[in-house]
## 1
Amino acid sequence: MLITPVPLPSELDLGYFGAVMRLNGIVDSMRIVQLIEQSVGMVGKSKRDIASQELLSKISQTEFHTFVAKHTMLPFQQGITSYHPDIQNCCQVNRNNSLPSGKRTARKGAYFCKNCVRRDQQTYGTSYWHREHQLPGLYWCPEHRIPLCYAKDQNAFLNSPADILDTSHSTVSYRYVKTIIDNQYIHSFLTISLSLLNRDKPFNFKHVSALLKMRASELGFRIPSGNKKKPKISGAVIDSFGRNWLSRVLPELTQQSGIVRTDSLDGLMYSSSHPYKISAYVLALATLFESPESALSALTQSDAVH
Ligand SMILES: [Zn+2]
C-alpha cells in the first residue's frame, strides 16, 4: 500500500513525485511509477520514469484540472497559446502525455529559497519545491528577498530542497540581485508571469498579438506594414531589461556574438499561425504597459471582446 501525502500549497508536480518516492522508501523512479500505476488501476499506461500528471493527480486524490492548475507550470507555459484557448489549461493531451521532467518546468535547473526551506520545515515538517520559484527570470525569493539556491540537475526535484541545501549554490550574487530587484520592468514581467501561473484559462495568442500591435502603434513603435523608420519594440525591451538578465530569459534575443536577433520579439505582432515563446509575450507586455495591472486588465478585456 503506497503512502501518498497531500500536496502542499503550490508544490511542483515533480517535487511531489519525489516526495512520494522518499515517503515510500523507493529510490528507483521506474519502480515507483509502476507502484503508482498499480495503486490507481492504470497498469502499463506510462513508459517513463516520471509519473504523468494524471497519475499524480489520482494518487493525491486531487481532481485532474485542479492538480494541473495548482501544481504544474503548465498554466504559465501555456498561458498564451493557440491550443484550445477556450478550455482550461489542463487540456486532454496532457492527461495522457507523460511529459519528461525537462518539459514540465519553465526553465533549466531546480530553484529554491533556503529561508523558505526553514519556514516550510517549521510549518509542514518538511521542505518542498515551490512552483513560483521555477518561473523564468526570478533569481530571488519574493518573500525573503534573498538569492534563490540552484541545482543544475533537475533530478534534484526528487530530493527535498533541505537534502541538497549544502551542495547547491546561488546562481547570482546579492549584489546582482540588488541591481535587478527594483527594476520596474523585471518586476512587471514577474508579476504578469505569476498571474498567468495562477490563471485557469489561457489567453488566445491572436488576441494578444492584436493587443500588442495596437499598443505598440499608440506608443510610436514600428508595427507590421507600418513606417519602417519607427523604432522596434525589441530595442525598447533590451533597454528596459538589460542584456544580462535578458540573456537568461530569452537567450535567442541576446546572442553571444553580440548580434541581436529581434525576430523573437518583433515577430509577435506578425504571427497569425503559431504562438511565440511565452516569455517573449510577457517581455513585450511588460515593456508596452505602464504597470502589470494595466497589462493584465488589457489582456482580459481583449479576450472578452473577441
Ligand atoms: Zn523564501
## 2
Amino acid sequence: MKILDFHAHLDDRWLHKPIPDASHMIAAMDRFGVGQTCVYTMMGFYADTPRNNDLLLERCRRYPDRLIPFVTVDPKEGPAAVDELERCLEFPEFRGIKFHPWLQAFASSMLEETMTAILKVAARTDTPVLLHDGTPPYSTTFQVADLARWVPGAKVFLGHAGSADYVDPAARLIRDIPNLYGCYCGSRPGDLAHLVETAGADKITFGSDFDPGSWELLAERLDNTIEAGLSPEDLEAVLWRNAERILRPSGS
Ligand SMILES: [Zn+2]
C-alpha cells in the first residue's frame, strides 16, 4: 500500500529538545512503508524564517525522493513575508506552505492584507497552504477556515482537521467550503470515518505530525487511519492519492 504522509516536522531541535537528524525519519518511514513525507520546520515558527527555510531545504535535499519541504514565512513581517515566500517558491522542492498561527503568535484577522497576498501567491503557484488548527486563541478551526473564504483560488488545509475538539465543525466546513481541505492527524480512528463520511474522501489527507524523535506517533496515527474502516478506494485517496493531486506539481 502506497503512503504519503502530509504532515511531519524536521529540525535539529524544538526549543530545548534536540531532534535526531533526517536519517531517523527515513528509518521510521521505511519501517512503516511510508514512501514520502511532507516536512515542516519547528524553529522557523519562532524566528529567522529565511534561515530555517534554507536549512529545511538542505536537509530534504539529502533525500529528494522521500522528503518534501513546506516553506514557512512570518506574516507579521508584512511585504517581506510575501517576498520570502516568492524566494522559496523559486525552488521546485518546496511544494507547500505551512503556518502555525499559535506558535507564530499571529491572528490572521489582524494581518488580513498580508495573508491575502500570501494566499494569492499560493493560488497563482498552485501551492497548498496548511495551517495548524484546533487550538485557541489564534488557530481555531473556524479562524483557519475563514482564510479559504478570503481567496477562493487557494487550497487551504486544516492541519489537524479539527484536532480532537472540533472534528465535527471541521467536517462540515470542509464539506461546505470548496477550497478547504483537512489533514487528519488525529488520535481517534472514528474521527477519520466521520470526516470522510461528511466531507468526502477526496478532501482529506493522512498526516502523522511525527518528527524523527517520535516514530511512535507515526505508528499510532497510521494505524488509526488504516483501522478507520474506510473502503479500499477511500483509504487509498486519504493515504496518498489526494496528496499527490494537491501538492504543488514538482518541477514547477
Ligand atoms: Zn505539526
